[in-house]
């Protein structure tokens, strides 16, 4: 039975050889991305605001896609997602009808369905920052709860230890 050894570490580990003795000897991190960049075929723009970076989700029209829901900061996401979902269901039924009745005319229906999916996807991506904040808040609340429980456990054990010490002192004094 043949076995292979682990491959050697990447050569850049040598850059951190003196890190434990001198943490400043490590190379600086790469600079932050500035301006627009492409990720998996989608264009994104980074805006810097007082040392915080925010990825700005490009609008649908910037990507050449017609927006089916109202523009503006006060979008009722639940209402718009429900409306787009119903519209998607209707278009899927129409596609099924077209495929049965006039199979050669399906392309327009498929384009309409694709447009609805792109709008749904964009709306859902608009909710990602809110989802991330809510998840972070939940994690922090769980940490606070665990720490409070740990403090209560420590207090309870301290009181139990004090009680045992008093009992031990009482039995020593009684002898």
TrEMBL record:
Instruction: List the GO cellular component terms.
Output: core mediator complex; mediator complex
Protein localization: Nucleus
* Transcription in keyword set: yes
GO terms assigned for molecular function: transcription coregulator activity
Give a Pfam family name. Med7
Keyword annotations: Activator, Coiled coil, Nucleus, Transcription, Transcription regulation
Keyword Transcription in record: yes
Per its UniProt record, what InterPro entries does this chain match? Med7/Med21-like, Mediatior_Med7, Mediatior_Med7_sf
Give start-end ranges for the coiled-coil region(s).
137-171
Chief site of localization: nucleus
Query: What biological-process GO terms show up in the record?
Result: regulation of transcription by RNA polymerase II
Q: What does this protein do?
A: Component of the Mediator complex, a coactivator involved in the regulated transcription of nearly all RNA polymerase II-dependent genes. Mediator functions as a bridge to convey information from gene-specific regulatory proteins to the basal RNA polymerase II transcription machinery.
* Oligomer and partners: Component of the Mediator complex.
| Protein name, entry field | Mediator of RNA polymerase II transcription subunit 7
């Amino acid at each position: 039975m043949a076995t292979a050894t682990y491959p050697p570490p990447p050569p850049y580990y040598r850059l951190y050889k003196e890190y434990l003795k001198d943490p400043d000897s490590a190379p600086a991190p790469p600079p932050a991305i500035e301006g627009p960049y492409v990720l998996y075929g989608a264009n994104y723009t980074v805006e810097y605001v007082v040392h915080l970076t925010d990825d700005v989700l490009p609008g649908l029209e910037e990507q050449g896609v017609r927006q089916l829901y109202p523009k503006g900061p006060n979008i009722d996401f639940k209402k718009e997602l429900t409306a787009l979902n119903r519209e998607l269901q209707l278009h899927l039924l129409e596609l099924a009808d077209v495929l049965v009745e006039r199979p050669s005319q399906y392309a327009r229906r498929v384009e309409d369905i694709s447009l609805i999916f792109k709008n749904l996807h964009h709306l859902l991506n608009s909710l990602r920052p809110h989802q991330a904040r809510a998840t972070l808040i939940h994690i922090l609340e769980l940490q606070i709860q665990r720490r409070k429980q740990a403090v209560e456990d420590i207090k309870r054990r301290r009181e139990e230890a004090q009680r045992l010490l008093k009992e031990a002192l009482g039995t020593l004094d009684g002898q």
